[in-house]
Amino acid sequence: MERINYQHLYYFWHVAKLGTISKACEALHLAQPTISGQLAVFEQSVGTQILRKEGRKLVLTDTGRTIFNYAEEIFTLGRELTQTLKGRDTGRGLRFNLGITDALPKLIAYRLLEPLLRQPETVQIHCYEDKTDRLLAEIALHSIDMVLADRPATPASGARVFNHFLGECGVGIFATPALAAQYRQNFPRCLNGAPFLLPTANTALRRSLNQWFDSQELSPSIQAEVENSALLKTFGAAGVGVFFSPLAVAKEIESQYGVQMIGPAEGVYERFYAITAQRKLQHPSVAAILANAQQRVFEILAISVDDVGSGG
């Protein structure tokens, strides 16, 4: 593939965004055979499949996703160039692609990102939430600059990445005022048989909580297991059960969800990591997040960096 045909790339970009050729035809005011034919030519020039059918929709292959990410940048720049030539201020800043794992508390994620939202230079933050392994795959494709996670990446992930320890904090137990009133006396023994909302078994916090239940000789009544931390708190706010959350954002949890802290889960800590493709923190937004974690969010004394998958 010596030179990209940007017209073909433009058609591909629309199809990938809209999910079907027919929708792309409507948006571009073109006949279906035109786009179908140009897509086939583009795929042939690429030399591998870039779209595949799943039911009635077209989905991206790994190569297609890489091409789509570049196309997003290319045509976003094109729109901004048009606006600039028309005398409009685009407000364009440094782009920062961030992955956030499902299990990571979203209030913690916000606290970590705060310095980017307040600095004088504009930063375009693009957040993607997904499972850790999928986000690590995007780092390998250089589609994401950093992943915020509740556990470090391991060599088993298959990606050469670097873990940056952000810090840790204790965990508290929260519930609606009505539920909290029932479980304050003789804490934590009073929690035996209490209705609990727990993170799923694949999360680092759940493994720590299982050990805590055993050490306290508690048998929780599990009402639901929820991987997404925000959804779990929403269940808790509805009075479905008591739940755990980091103490670093205890006041925000109580205010936002209308709950109260029953007490701390002594000995249980939630740890947080930034995962990047480079050991050296080249992207200024990554450096700002790590500095903020060190100085304000967790108040740790040092950031340790572990090389994953490099044999050293």
UniProtKB/TrEMBL annotation:
<keyword id="KW-0805">Transcription regulation</keyword>
<dbReference type="GO" id="GO:0003677">
    <property type="term" value="F:DNA binding"/>
</dbReference>
<dbReference type="GO" id="GO:0003700">
    <property type="term" value="F:DNA-binding transcription factor activity"/>
</dbReference>
<dbReference type="InterPro" id="IPR005119">
    <property type="entry name" value="LysR_subst-bd"/>
</dbReference>
<dbReference type="InterPro" id="IPR000847">
    <property type="entry name" value="LysR_HTH_N"/>
</dbReference>
<keyword id="KW-0238">DNA-binding</keyword>
<dbReference type="InterPro" id="IPR036388">
    <property type="entry name" value="WH-like_DNA-bd_sf"/>
</dbReference>
<comment type="similarity">
    <text>Belongs to the LysR transcriptional regulatory family.</text>
</comment>
<dbReference type="Pfam" id="PF03466">
    <property type="entry name" value="LysR_substrate"/>
</dbReference>
<protein>
    <submittedName>
        <fullName>Transcriptional activator NhaR</fullName>
    </submittedName>
</protein>
<feature type="domain" description="HTH lysR-type">
    <location>
        <begin position="4"/>
        <end position="61"/>
    </location>
</feature>
<keyword id="KW-0804">Transcription</keyword>
<keyword id="KW-0010">Activator</keyword>
<dbReference type="InterPro" id="IPR036390">
    <property type="entry name" value="WH_DNA-bd_sf"/>
</dbReference>
<dbReference type="GO" id="GO:2000142">
    <property type="term" value="P:regulation of DNA-templated transcription initiation"/>
</dbReference>
<dbReference type="Pfam" id="PF00126">
    <property type="entry name" value="HTH_1"/>
</dbReference>
